[in-house]
Amino acid sequence: AGTASEMTRFTIITDEERHVKMAIVDKHVTPYLSVNDPSLMMGMPASLTAATGMDALTHAIEAYVSTAANPITDACAVKAMDLIAINLPIVVTEPTNTLAREQMAYAEFLAGMAFNNASLGYVHAMAHQLGGFYNLPHGVCNALLLPHVEAFNLSAAKERLDEVGIILGANNADLKDLDVISAIKKLAAIVGIPKSLRELGVKEEDFEILAENAMKDVCGLTNPIQPTKEQVIGIFKAAY
């Protein structure tokens, strides 16, 4: 409930010897059919609900600012953001809320439709390295990196990111009138995401190899800006 692995052309392989996550992107692995049953999500603990929900939000936002975005992916991404802003805090505190679980199932599927066609960005390129290197939850890594990568992206995608802030604030009173970076951080805090990479046991001395591997990740190709290794390291430091 969040990854959209049930309907996308993205497959992630973890090389346990090199501690690297790699993305395989191929239309031939796209499923013909998926069944999304929110009743199966009722038993998810709050931490997993929060992590997968923030993963879906990351999919929507990265697809929206992607260099491959188009009107169809925009429609899917915007609706996903609408639904997540409203329903994610509810399902974290009310795990058996049937309506909110159903809306989150729609949201993560729509976000999957968006990034399946517009691809992603450096949040995922960097999060894959943290997950592979430290065996950390993917959604938590995304949630921690998302505001910092988008702060970096503001110089190239400010109009789009301002729109994201408006969407989040329009659908959640706690996020109203906040800039997009503050809104993302506040939503993550509301649902209980850790506040820093340091809390997850990430080591600053590993940033260089993490950055090198992130720059090889296919997800970074559609980021609004192509960063240098030093800039990627700077984003890791900002999240630390």
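(ticket continues) Second input and output from the same batch:
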Amino acid sequence: ESLIHPAMVASDDPERVLIIGAGEGATIREVLKYNVKEVVAVDVDRKAVEIAEKYLETWHKGSFRDPRVRLIFQDGFDFVRQYKGEPFDVVVLDLTDPTETSRSRNLYTIEFYKEVKKLVKDVMVTQGTSPYQSPHSFSRLVKTLREIYNYVSVGLSFVPSFDTVWAFIFCSDKVNVSKLNVKNRLNRVMGELRYYDEITHKNMFLLPKDVRKLIDSEKTVVTLSNPINIREG
């Protein structure tokens, strides 16, 4: 919910959504709580998605089979470079962590983010690792995205299954997601949310002093030639 809903409510009329990192289908599930017309979900690992669809029904709630969803099995960087269609209202990057051996490591670079921006109509959001478990990876991502977008908003949520605070980074040239009054916009949501509401939204973007200091002191931009490695902190 922390990844999806701030981005979806920040878009004026999110009809088309791109998700890179279909995973277990939970991101698709949350996007489908809005009156969207099309969800394009890209994943590099067909087998992983097939296993998730078969065994993780409680996570995806049948979202893979929704007629509005189009699954594409392709490397995310290749998809973005080759895409020639209309831009998407919202783009979601729900990627695996950028470890040294991760196939998604290049999807945390300024080169990739510049290609993604061509596809973004309103808002892009990416998972941003943890400011406490991997502080320098986190701060470099924020620094890199600030090189590209007018508004970069960092939201934090405690994720019980991770047992730590996690970052979600919202980027736009149109709207400052952190300053948005979302109360009336949440009327768009079909069904009840467990965690996210207008109070949660405000709290997500009230960053503690140590995190603000970490972000403000960062000088390094992430590139293909100088990628991040989450194990390095």
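Agent notes: Residues 135-146 form the longest helix (12 residues). The mean pLDDT is 95. Closing as not reproducible unless the customer responds.
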